[in-house]
Design brief:
single chain, alpha/beta, Elongation Factor Tu (Ef-tu), domain 3, Rossmann fold, Lysin, 3 domains, 9-stranded mixed beta sheet, 6-stranded antiparallel barrel, 15 helices, elongated, ATP synthesis, CF(1)
Length: 501
């Protein structure tokens, strides 16, 4: 495989012969370069330097063309430049599945050539107009009980995941990816300005879970050129649009957009754009809104397909009122807040339900899930009020004891390990067992055994899976399923305990 430097040098000569235009580097403030001598240059056009690097036109000034360079080392003043007469396009196709690529679509594994490329697409495509958008009606299973019950998501929703560093945001995103990949969804993870070992860790987890063939990782390292880091989320969205147009549902994780905003701020300040709040450029909102508006639930002809987007953002000391954070909140359809104090207390996932919002997901819920959501919301409000009340040293009556005990059981139920993914039917079954008091006397170890065993049987035993589906699908509301599982729980529990997997 020819090195990129040699490819770009060859493209420089081809472009020079074809367009008969030669530009010269007049000023360098790396990675922004000012070039004169390219009168027919246009925005987003690819240019090549004689030293063997590539750039794209970012602005057309009166005397110069402003170019963003895809290289760590600066180009030299006086260097020759040729324009390609082509807008920046990245390769897309089914061959990307199972691969780790950079923001230009090249494999990040040395000497690996990606085959199965179908076409090349513009990274700055306009979002489909409103007449192509469909109401979100299909739920998105995250595999995380706390989210599926209390902050439900729908296919095509854009949900911000926000919280302090190291509170479990990426772990949650990985759980959603594992859950969706097993259901056949195409999953794309965009690691923006990440450490290389973090990207490798994500890849290893996907390989270990056996879902890498349904996944694409688009990544840029923290030491990569700023231009590559800036382009990463747009490349990931472009790849997602390719699979959406083929009628497939796509899950897109953007990890994370607060890092992306910082690199965009650096680019803008170098390019002498006027700084605004916190020194971010005035168009930072537009940079993210034009990206996230490309996600949604769409109907093309008779096919309905979706891009569900989960952008991540970092909060500082639990403050979710920062500039970029509030920008993203106003663009998305809700947010899931990871609370540092909950994380330190040992809760995983450390999601603060009271400060989290979903504006779309509840309309996708069945009557059974709607009933569970209502019961849990009321109970957690009562539980938090009760915990505050007993701090005053109040005497514990039977009602308060029962509330605290149920809260403890639910905390144990919602506590999930990194690679523990629960199907929605298993979640409903186990929750009803706890809520109805069937597992009241059981230890935390026994509850975890039932949870693991129920999921294994659901995945591998069609008899158990059909029994659960029959009970849940035949229930009209929460009270109905409460009665049915209470009546059949002995049979189901015996089946779980005797089954050998």
């Amino acid at each position: 495989m020819m090195p990129l430097v040699d490819i770009y040098k060859e493209n420089f000569n081809i472009s020079l012969d074809r367009n008969k235009e030669t530009g010269f580097v007049d000023e360098v403030t790396h990675p922004i370069v000012y070039i004169n001598g390219l009168p027919k240059a246009r925005l987003s056009e690819v240019v090549y330097f004689e030293s063997g690097c590539m750039g794209i036109v970012t602005s057309l000034l009166e005397d110069y063309v402003e170019v963003m360079v895809f290289r760590n080392t600066p180009v030299l003043v006086g260097e020759k430049v040729s324009r390609s007469n082509e807008i920046l396009h990245i390769p897309v196709g089914d061959g990307l599945l199972g691969n780790v690529v950079d923001s230009l679509g090249n494999s990040m594994h040395e000497n690996k050539v990606i085959t199965g490329i179908s076409e090349f697409r513009d990274t700055n495509a306009s979002p489909p107009p409103i007449n192509f958008r469909e109401r979100i009606t299909v739920p998105l299973e995250t595999g995380v009980s706390l989210v599926d019950f209390l902050i439900p998501l729908g296919r095509g929703q854009r949900e911000l995941v926000i919280g302090d560093r190291n509170t479990g945001k990426t772990t949650f995103a990985m759980q959603v990816m594992l859950s969706q990949a097993k259901l056949g969804t195409v999953c794309i993870y965009a690691g923006i300005g990440k450490k290389l070992h973090s990207i490798k860790k994500v890849e290893n987890q996907l390989v270990r879970s056996g879902v890498m063939n349904r996944t694409i990782i688009v990544a840029s390292g923290s030491s990569d050129p700023i231009a590559n880091i800036y382009l990463t989320p747009y490349t990931a969205m472009t790849i997602a649009e390719y699979f959406r147009d083929k009628g497939k549902d796509v899950l897109l994780i953007l990890d994370d957009l607060s890092t992306h905003a910082k690199f965009y701020r650096e680019l803008s300040l170098i390019a002498k754009k006027f700084p605004g709040r916190d020194s971010y450029p005035g168009d930072v909102f537009y940079a993210h809104s034009r990206l996230l508006e490309r996600a949604g639930n769409f109907k093309f002809g008779n096919k309905v397909s979706s891009i569900t987007c989960l952008p991540l953002a970092e909060a500082i000391e639990g403050d979710i009122t920062g500039y970029i954070q509030t920008n993203l909140m106003s663009i998305t359809d809700g947010h899931i807040f990871f609370d540092q104090s909950l994380f330190k207390s040992g809760k995983k996932p450390a999601i603060n339900y009271f400060l989290s919002v979903t504006r779309v997901g509840r309309q996708t819920q069945s009557k059974v899930k709607w009933g569970i959501n209502r019961e849990l919301s009321s109970f957690f409000y009562l539980h938090s009020k009760t915990e505050r009340f007993i701090h005053f040293g109040a005497e514990l009556n039977e009602g308060i004891k029962a509330t605290l005990e149920m809260g403890k059981k639910l905390d144990q139920f919602f506590d999930q390990t990194t690679e523990e993914i629960l199907s929605i039917d298993v979640q409903i079954f186990l929750f009803v067992m706890i809520w109805s008091g069937i597992l009241k006397e059981e230890t935390i170890g026994k509850i975890r055994f039932y949870r693991a065993q129920a999921q294994k049987l659901y995945d591998k035993d069609p008899i158990f899976r059909d029994k659960l589906k029959k009970i849940i699908n035949s229930s009209d509301d929460f009270n109905s399923i409460l009665g049915k599982i209470s009546a059949q729980h002995k049979e189901l529990v015996d089946y779980m305990e005797k089954a050998k997997i």
